[in-house]
């Protein structure tokens, strides 16, 4: 049983738009031992659904679905009689019947409909814009008074958008005359959601019209020229410019950090020799040495940034296992 419990840490969920169920590839599904499978609807209720929505960064659970509402899955049914308190950080941490030991078929696949409680509006992309939060069924803005990097970091993390790059104030992303829900926001940066940060009180603030908090977020790592979001040439953002990573010393440990940072599951292969084509611009990183626990590739050990004596014939790449659609539920 100890081996099973260790492997449970490898569960992943994949969201699709704003409606979800445990169906392979297109919808949230459970990954165990390299195989995707579904969740049985026995005992499935809002507590379990809330954990799913929170784990995939899609806000609150507003409706539970059962009886293969989103269509029948295929393959394994990994979880049955799931019992969550509702506070777990992942579905795999809830109680459930042992893997494969269930009396279900795919006509009983579980599902959920989530609703995000935060959105970024009028930005350049899904990861920038005016911050708006949903409270009492109504969307409203966040007062920019004392808006700082810790607050912005929580927003970017909650939206699945990586690190905070720029804080914005006033009407940078346009003005709206609606409700101002949050004022004097005071996050420590470790919160999973902006709604759990300290505030004056819902609807209490020191702002006037067009004093809106906003963010521009961005992951400092991307995969380019692959056949999916989760494969390609590794590129890092440094000093405002994208550049590549040399394959000198590039291994599975380094590649695993990239896959995890991008929400792409486990590493399958670490590639070298410009497998995904030659990049352009600077070769930012060489002789990368990760221990494997870093949250971002840029936290791994390197000698220094930029290597002018290297060419792009040795650009590093990676193929990861995941097929994420992490931002699908963020589009409003």
From TrEMBL:
Keywords: Disulfide bond, Glycoprotein, Repeat, Signal. Residues 30-115, 118-218, 221-321 form the SRCR domain. The keyword Disulfide bond applies. Disulfide bonds join 40-104, 53-114, 84-94, 143-207, 156-217, 187-197, 259-320, 290-300. GO terms for cellular component: membrane. InterPro entries: SRCR, SRCR-like_dom_sf. It comes from the Eukaryota. The keyword Repeat applies. PANTHER family: DELETED IN MALIGNANT BRAIN TUMORS 1 PROTEIN-RELATED, SRCR DOMAIN-CONTAINING PROTEIN. This is SRCR domain-containing protein.
